[in-house]
Amino acid sequence: MTEHALRVLSYNVHRWGDDRTALARVVKACAPDVMLVQEAPTWFGTRRKRRAMAATFGMRYVAASARNAILVADGIHLTGIRGRRVRRPFVRRRLSFIATQLPGGVVGGQVVLGSTRLAVVVCHLGLHPHGRIHEIAQVLTLCRSFGTPYLLAGDINEEPDGPAWKRLAEEGLVDLGADAGPTFNSATPHKRIDAAVLTPQLKGRLRHIPATREDLAAASDHLPLLVELRP
């Protein structure tokens, strides 16, 4: 239970494959209570890698679905954890070759802030422009299933004029990053494709990322979003 504020960091960590030392500096500087990870390390030794990554941040790995993961700081208790795989379409590539995308997923859990129980949820939408609208519907179904106010954050993989963002607005969610600037790529940001949205019952804002440009560019190909929630 947190009485004063909850700091939630949403970050696509690019499979933990870039400068891990710079990434650890960025995360530690943000001092999150909860970290919503996209593109968490996977394949061989998935859980071991994710626990090792969390340890470099001084956090614990507690939940995952596909390549999304949730980490928490000491003293933060995530309850009611639930996740689901997200169905994705085939993607047609050059030379008439058809390949599937990597599995999609969404995962969340509940925390208590003051007297409010709320959910924190992370997702990573796919590359198919028409498929994303079906994916976001599945994500929102899981968000609603908590029966509480919620924060949803993740890599939307499209800019704010796209259909997935419009669906989030139709749901009545507040876009915390509307004036925050681009999030991709980290070296020369020119697209806002990462989101942090919340139900109107919650009070939240984006905070400045207290890290150097050099560390942000080296840590991942995305910039993080740091959300502060208050009772």
Secondary structure layout plus pairing:
Blueprint: E1 6-12, H1 20-30, E2 34-38, H2 46-57, E3 60-65, E4 68-72, E5 79-86, E6 90-92, E7 98-100, E8 104-113, E9 116-124, H3 131-145, E10 150-155, H4 163-170, E11 174-175, E12 194-198, E13 203-207, H5 213-219, E14 225-230
Parallel strand pairs: 1-2, 9-10
Antiparallel strand pairs: 1-14, 2-4, 3-4, 5-8, 6-7, 8-9, 10-12, 11-12, 13-14
Instruction: Note the total helix count.
Output: 5
- End-to-end separation in angstroms reads 11 Å
Q: Which percent range fits the helix content? A: 10-25%
Major sheet strand order: 3-4-2-1-14-13
Mean pLDDT: 93
Radius of gyration, whole Å:
16 Å
Largest sheet: 6 strands, mixed
Helix-strand makeup class: alpha+beta
Summarize the helix and strand pattern as letters.
EHEHEEEEEEEHEHEEEHE
**Which stretches are low in confidence, meaning pLDDT under 50 for 5 or more residues running?**
none
Question: What would you note in describing this structure?
Answer:
The chain is of the alpha+beta class and 231 residues long. Helix content is 23%, strand content 35%. The strands form three sheets. The protein has a six-stranded mixed β-sheet, covered by helices on one side. It has a six-stranded mixed β-sheet with strand order 5-8-9-10-12-11, covered by helices on one side. It has a two-stranded antiparallel sheet with strand order 6-7. Helix 1 packs across helix 5. The mean pLDDT is 93.
